[in-house]
Write a structure and sequence with these properties.
The protein is mainly α. 70% of the residues lie in helices and 0% in strands. It has one domain: Urease accessory protein UreF, CATH 1.10.4190.10. Keywords: Chaperone, Cytoplasm, Nickel insertion.
């Protein structure tokens, strides 16, 4: 019989899996345009690009909001949940990034309902607005600790972007995995920053991501949707 800690870990692995049918593999979050613009030309450039987002967007925006959404869900605070969802969507800098959040949110919300998680159907309209909310909801219902949930979200995000870089650059799988290992070592510090961040400090400034994402909307040849 699986103990509670093992069950929560298995659920987290499931939630963070790249096989989850939310379309994560179809998005590069600006990397595709950055490669075409020669901002990213090699493994070191990719690592620097993702490090900047990890330390800015993830540490100061996505993860603090994930933690607050999970806390709101645990006490059935739909007003609070809506507030943090609005905050997250307002912080997505381009139409593509907002669309990605919405499409992935709807896909995950449908999945949560199909899994028959308690109250998922009732909360679906909220959860469908952004993927982070659905992730927080599943973590709350499966009794995954907030720090573990944040770590799983960070890993899933990181793995997706590194794999996008592997597809777009002359970068082998082994080299891509080396980049992934080095970047993953930064996650614990990012989790600490996110957990300690007060409400008034939530926000990130990543102008290069905003430019790349906006330019990608009109990029002539594209493999990815963002």
């Amino acid at each position: 019989m699986v103990d509670e800690d093992s069950a929560a870990l298995l659920r987290l692995l499931h939630l963070a899996s790249p096989s989850l049918p939310v379309g994560g593999f179809t998005y590069s979050q600006g990397i595709e345009w950055a490669v075409e613009a020669t901002w990213i030309r090699a493994a070191d450039d990719l690592e620097d690009w993702i490090t900047d987002q990890l330390q800015e967007t993830l540490a100061h925006f996505d993860l603090p909001l994930l933690l607050r959404m999970q806390a709101a869900i645990l006490v059935d605070d739909m007003v609070g949940l809506t507030h943090w969802i609005d905050w997250l969507l307002a912080g997505r800098d381009s139409a593509e990034l907002r669309r990605e959040e919405s499409l992935r949110g709807r896909a995950l919300a449908d999945l949560l309902v199909a899994w028959e998680l308690p109250d998922a159907d009732r909360a679906r309209a909220h959860l469908a607005r952004c993927q982070v909310a659905g992730f927080a909801f599943a973590a709350a219902r499966w009794e995954i600790t907030p720090r573990a949930a944040a770590a799983g979200y960070a890993w899933s995000w990181l793995e997706n972007l590194v794999l996008a870089g592997v597809k777009l650059l002359p970068l082998g799988q082994t080299q891509g995995q080396q980049v992934l290992v080095r970047l993953a070592q930064r996650i614990p510090a990012v989790l600490d920053t996110a957990a300690a961040l007060p409400d008034h400090s939530i926000g990130a400034s990543t102008p290069a991501l905003a430019i790349a994402s906006a330019a990608h909307e009109s990029q002539y040849t594209r493999l990815f949707r963002s």
